[in-house]
Specification:
Layout lengths: L1 E5 L2 E7 L8 E5 L6 H9 L9 E3 L2 E3 L4 H7 L1 E4 L11 H6 L11 H14 L15 H14 L4 E5 L7 H16 L3 E6 L2 H7 L2 E6 L2 E7 L5 H9 L30
């Protein structure tokens, strides 16, 4: 029965759902459907106006991200929350038990190296965040959640900043995390991703829950109809365009350092 309003705008209206242990559960909807608001209520970034939250069978109050983290809920936002002048390892341990007045970097590094090995990640733990690619920064966010012992990981539009190859790699690693018992909420508006990675999908439209279904039991056309409330034509006719002259050319470009 979760609801969240902003003045006269209802972002989430009486939404009820369940996330199962060890499943990848998609929140699917158009922009503005209420997906991110719902997830931020689960993570404590926002407080619902009404409704009850239960985690591992117990009623809980999540008033801040710290409450969520202590329960075992982690979230990777669409816009990363990282301190760019700090290193990977410093970003990961900040706010954790490893970050006392004297940082225990050696022990934290050993644990992080094991996590990287488990999930076949190549990441320079001593690199500063601003030196990393966007995909690598996303892995820092995910590692931070895993380092804290997350049981439920929320990913908000995680492929928005990734290439197709990077997205495929993310899906493969998420499946491994799932096999290790992690529950994952995957927020997206892309139908291919829903079919590719999820076990179940909850469709949202205009802040309302439309339906929760087994992903294998629905087609992309059916999901699209749930999303927008009408049939959707997937094939778009485009006129043939002749490639013109070069408008931008770069030769012998070098970057000597950072």
């Amino acid at each position: 029965g979760l609801s969240k309003r902003f003045g006269s705008v209802t972002a989430n209206n009486d939404i009820s759902l369940e996330i199962l242990p060890g499943e990848i559960h998609c929140f699917l909807g158009e922009n503005g459907a209420g997906k991110s608001t719902l997830s931020e209520c689960l993570y404590g970034f926002m407080t619902p106006d009404c409704g009850d939250l239960y985690f591992e069978g117990k009623k809980v109050e999540i008033k801040s991200p710290l409450d969520a983290i202590r329960l075992g809920i982690g979230m990777v936002h669409q816009h990363f929350i990282l301190v760019k002048p700090l290193t990977v390892i410093e970003n990961i341990i900040v706010g954790t038990d490893a970050a006392h007045f004297f940082l225990n970097l050696a022990e934290a590094k050993k644990k992080l190296e094991q996590l990287c090995e488990d999930y076949e990640l190549e990441l320079d733990l001593s690199a500063k965040i601003w030196q990393l690619s966007v995909a690598e920064q996303q892995w820092v966010e995910i590692l931070k959640a895993l380092f804290g012992g997350v049981k439920l990981l929320i990913l908000d539009e995680p492929t928005a900043v990734l290439t197709p190859q990077e997205s495929d790699r993310l899906f493969a690693i998420l499946r491994k995390m799932q096999k290790d018992g992690l529950s994952i909420i995957f927020i997206t508006h892309k139908l291919n991703e829903v079919k590719e990675v999820s076990n179940r999908v909850t469709v949202l439209r205009h802040g309302e829950k439309v339906q929760t279904v087994e992903t294998s039991s629905v087609t992309k056309a059916e999901l699209a109809r749930m999303m927008v409330g009408r049939d959707v034509v997937f094939r778009v006719e485009k006129p043939h365009v002749k490639i013109g002259d070069v408008i931008l050319q770069i030769n012998d470009l070098n970057a000597k350092n950072d």
